[in-house]
Write a structure and sequence with these properties.
It contains no helices and 15 strands. The protein is mainly β and 144 residues long. The protein starts with 8 loop residues before the first strand and ends with a strand. It binds calcium ion (3 copies).
Length: 144
Amino acid sequence: MYSGSGHDYLTGGIANDLLAGRSGNDTYKVQEFLNGADTIDDSVGVNTLDVSLMNVGVTVDLARTNMQSLYPGYLSLKFTSINTISNFEGTSGNDTILGNSLNNEIRGEGGHDVIEGRAGNDRYVGGPGSDRFVFSGLQLVLLS
Ligand SMILES: [Ca+2]
Ligand SMILES: [Ca+2]
Ligand SMILES: [Ca+2]
C-alpha cells in the first residue's frame, strides 16, 4: 500500500503488507488478527505507530530496522529506517517500548508498561496501571 504526500492513515491486512506513507505525517495502525509480517517504509514526517486495537501487550524497538516480532504468532514489523516512527500508541496490555533518537511521544495506555525513549526530547504518557519509565540520558529509573 502506497500513499502520496499528506497525512495518511494506513492499516495492514492479513497478508504481509508494505505500508509506505512517504511524506507527511502518517499513522500506521495494526491489530491483533490482521497479523502477518508487515514492512513500514517511511522516514519523512512525524509518523505514529498505533497498536491500541491489539488485545495483548507488545514489545517493540523503534530503532531496529530488521524484522521484529511485536507479539509471537501475531504480528511482526520491519521499519525501513531508524527514524520511521516518532510516536507510539500502546495496548491495554503490558507493553515494552524502546524509542529511537527522535523526539518520541510514547503512550503506554493500560497495563504495566516499560517505556524507554532513548535519545531525544521524549514524552512519556503512562496511562492507567503501574508503569516503569527508563530515562536513559539521566540514568534514572522511576518505579510508579
Ligand atoms: Ca511519512
Ligand atoms: Ca500498555
Ligand atoms: Ca527518543
